[in-house]
Amino acid sequence: MSMLRIPFHEKVAYGLGNFMPTAITATGGMAMYFYTDVAGLSAAFIGALLLLVRIVDAVWDIWVGRRVDATRSRWGQARPYLLWFAPLLAIALVASFTVPPLEGTARTVYFVVAYIALWCAYSLIMIPFQSMLPMIAPDPDERLRVAGVSSFVQFIFVVGCAAGFPMLKDALSDGNPAQGFQRAAMLFGGLGLLFTWLCFAFVRERVPPMASAPTPNLRADLRALLASRAWRAGALAQCVLATLIGLPLASCVYYFAVVIGKPQLIGPFMGLGGIGLVLGVVLSDQLTRRLCKKRVYVAAMLVGAVLWTAITLGGPDRLPVVFVLSLLANICLGVSAPISYSMNGDIADDIEYRHGKRVVGTLVATINFANKVGAGLCSAIVGLVLSVTAYQAGAAQQAPEALQGVVALMSVIPAVMAVGVAAVMGWAYPLGRSQLKQLNQQLGLRRNVAAS
Hints:
Elements: H1 8-16, H2 19-38, H3 43-70, H4 79-96, H5 104-136, H6 140-171, H7 177-202, H8 218-227, H9 229-259, H10 266-288, H11 293-310, H12 319-355, H13 360-388, H14 400-410, H15 412-428, H16 433-451
Helix pairs in contact: 1-6, 1-7, 2-6, 2-7, 3-5, 3-13, 4-5, 4-7, 5-12, 5-13, 6-7, 6-10, 6-12, 9-12, 9-13, 9-14, 9-15, 10-12, 11-12, 11-15, 12-13, 12-16, 13-14
């Protein structure tokens, strides 16, 4: 097995590449308010726009992944995209939070184009950025270390961006909300551009691509993905995990508003959850240095399932119990984050060994699509449970069934999903420590022969 070690400063530099994608997703929570209350668009229109973006994503992400796989440049396969398209993403972010001096249909068209451009530019950064991980770290264990540092930096950005954007748009508004949003977006875009270019400058791709760009054959590459047991299990696990991560975040607003009756605790609760994620990343690094990361992942999900189930014991008179259990459950999610992140590279290696194809970009695009499906399922599950239990929006008093439904969204339902992820990874995912060691050795020999 390769003993190549990535310098710590390079791991941090790779982590800095998380800022721009994190800023886009973190500000997404403010986008609905901006478009309805500041830009004056209807909520129904925004819902249709979000659906349109998801449809465009399904095709665009695959195209971007294919372009990464086909790219050959002196900077590598993925790094050039960070150099070329970071300015485009920064401009698109500002444009999406700018109210133009237009009226009627022209304003509507502007926001449609700006919002679609934002998420298309997002994919031009996010997919190459995630594709870089197996290219910069050929060794699976070192790849996990890079993913750990990257996840640690990312969670800091998540907390900072989620809390910082609302505060900045108020501080920079000078009494004009539209101006506040635009200036905050400009600051975030500038920081994102700087951090993305630092990532480009200090990170190196070490795994050489195939000798020449592959002949475009999407059908054959998708068949290679579908034939991979590791990809099937990984995509399913990522989809369920995305739903699992989103459920407590989406339901805690209802939980503290109608079950606990203290909506002012939503912010501290989410902040504590972010701390738990960061602590989990640190713990993950220590555990996976000694144990098989697949087993650590499965154990983290099972322990998390127990903790989420125990939240049903909480309530208005047991708030410390709820906070402590949630903190511990988020630590479990933090433990799984770098492992899940590093899986893409492991799956790419497995496909390269079995099929002679290195389709990292296409693989990352499909996994990203699975994540987006999971995020969509999260919203659907919350809406379905609230509807079935007769939740009354805005009502101070809710029926017992509605309260039970909200509690289930915070506890039992995430627990069931955590068990599902553990089952998929434990029984269906084939790449444990011994398999990865053998795979890395065989691929190393094959690559050396090809390079000689």
